[in-house]
Amino acid sequence: MPKIVEKTPTPGWASCLGIVVVVFGIIGTASHGNEWITQKVITSDSAVMHGISPRCPEDELIEEGISLIECQLMSAKVKIMIVSRPNWFRDFQMNLALLGTFVAFSSIFVGAALVQYRTWAPTSIVMVVSVLLIIDITGFVAATNTGPLLRSTYLWNILLWFFIHLTMTAGALVGYRRYFSD
Questions:
Q1: pTM (predicted TM-score)
Q2: 172 close to 126: Cβ distance less than 8 angstroms
Q3: CA 180, CA 161: separation in Å to the nearest integer?
Q4: Do 114 and 125 touch, CB atoms closer than 8 A?
Q5: In the 8-state DSSP scheme, what is residue 51?
Q6: Structural contact between residues 96 and 138, judged by C-beta atoms closer than 8 angstroms
Q7: Per-residue pLDDT tens over the stretch 139-151
């Protein structure tokens, strides 16, 4: 007769934290990936830096639901980013965004493992969300060393992610302690 092994039920903290980590992992992957693409595409060799006026055909403006002024402001935003960032910022931000993309993507799988309460998941979740928190702190320090226009673009977003990851790190640490105290 085969031996029946009882599955240990997943604790409530693990299920809740795992779901939150998966959801924010998906959003974080998209956010970091978007930042990487932004830094990759916006270069000092772009048309706006050569004085070429933005091309805003009326049919595209209608299709996108924007005005001519909004189209011109988007061009100005690109110019602000290029002119305001120090020489080191683009490469630094690209590398940080790429690292953030990979770590946020891995957090999806670690969060799913926590929902299923794999034995390695409580330790891994602490490490993954801690690395995300360190990425936020590093991005904050980098953004504070740029000009005022870039700071106004980056700091609110970074602070929002910092507090999300700080909360997840606190939850992961409490769950980790509970996991090893049981």
A1: 0.84
A2: yes
A3: 28
A4: yes
A5: T
A6: yes
A7: 999 999 988 888 9
Q: Are 81 and 17 in contact (CB under 8 A)?
A: no
CA 6 to chain centre: 38
Distances (CA, A) of 134 to 15, 27, 111, 143: 24, 18, 18, 14
For residue 92 the two structure tokens come to 């630094």
Which residue's structure tokens are 């991005």? 139
User: Per the structure block, which two tokens stand in for 40?
Assistant: 């990759």
What span, in angstroms and rounded, lies between the C-alpha atoms of 97 and 91?
10
Which tokens belong to 100? 């953030």
Are the beta carbons of 153 and 100 closer than 8 angstroms? no
Residues 58, 61, 62, 66, CA torsion sign: negative
Token reading at 38: 């932004």
The C-alpha atoms of residue 45 and residue 42 are separated, in whole angstroms, by 8
The domain segmentation of the chain, as residue ranges, is: 12-181
The predicted-structure confidence for 80-138, as pLDDT tens digits, reads as follows: 888 888 989 999 999 999 999 999 999 999 999 999 988 899 999 999 999 999 999 99
Region for 9 from its dihedrals, namely left if φ exceeds 0, alpha if ψ lies in -120 to 50, beta otherwise: beta
**C-alpha pair distances (Å), 151 with each of 89, 141, 145:** 12, 10, 8
